[in-house]
Amino acid sequence: MTPPATPRSALADTVLERLTTTYAAAADPARAVEAAAYMKDVAPFLGIRTPERRALSRTVLDGTPRPTEADCTAVALRCWALPEREYHYFAVDYLRRHVGRCSSGFLPVVRHLVTTVSWWDTVDALASHVVGGLVAADPRLVPVMDEWIEDDDLWIARTALLHQLRYKGATDAERLFRYCLRQSGHSDFFIRKAIGWSLREYAKTDPDAVRDFVAGARDRLAPLAVREALKNL
């Protein structure tokens, strides 16, 4: 799939110049090695702890205007083109903050982020905060989620499983349960974990529905998914 085009953005120019200068100055090579090892070497790190990184991000963004969708696209794609993982985290935080500025047309950009340098640390936040926000704002994206749950890329399927994670009473339970059954035979840990996690989160809203679903589907669900789903029940 062709990557989305990076639009011109004066705001992204400003943000990236400040970001790369500020983050690089705070890099800790020893901590970077530890962070990369913890994340299975999915990407190199600068070695900036999350509280410090977010404080630095506030400095980077101080005085900048609210972005347009094009600005969000440019910031995200340009951050993702940098090797160090902290730049990807910055982009995720930026999109979480400004997802309301983006239309349904932004979803292909998020798909690119989900499928590039993929690991749970970015995928899960993009799924629950960004994709979830886009779908909630535009129900016409629901059929796209129906396609994503069928996708061979496990991170796209995981995103479909997790995009309703924060919906609470607005969760489409029938669709959630259908997605869980669709991927119940998947052999990968991250899919089985996502099934259990999505059910466990919805159980905070409707425990009886989750209990009944698991009871009826126990022979199809992996033990890991069942344990996660029923952990708090």
Quick synopsis:
The chain has 13 helices and no strands.
Can you describe this structure?
The chain is mainly alpha-helical. It has a domain at 10-169: Alpha Horseshoe (Leucine-rich Repeat Variant), CATH 1.25.10. It contains 13 helices and no strands. It has helices at residues 10-25, 29-38, 50-61, 69-80, 85-98, 107-114, 120-137, 142-148, 154-162, 173-182, 189-203, 207-217, 223-230. The longest helix is centred in the middle third of the chain and has 18 residues, at 120-137. The chain is globular. It starts with 9 loop residues before the first helix and ends with a helix. The mean pLDDT is 98.
Distance between the termini: 42 Å
Q: In angstroms, what is the radius of gyration?
A: 19 Å
Which geometry do the CA atoms define? globular
Question: Using DSSP, what is the number of strands?
Answer: 0
- What is the CATH C level class of the domain at 10-169, in words? Mainly Alpha
Q: In CATH terms, what is the architecture of the domain at 10-169?
A: Alpha Horseshoe
Helix-and-strand structural type? mainly alpha
The major β-sheet equals: none
- The CATH topology name of the domain at 10-169 reads Leucine-rich Repeat Variant
- In percent terms, what proportion of residues is strand? under 5%
Order of helices and strands: HHHHHHHHHHHHH
Q: Can you count the helices? A: 13
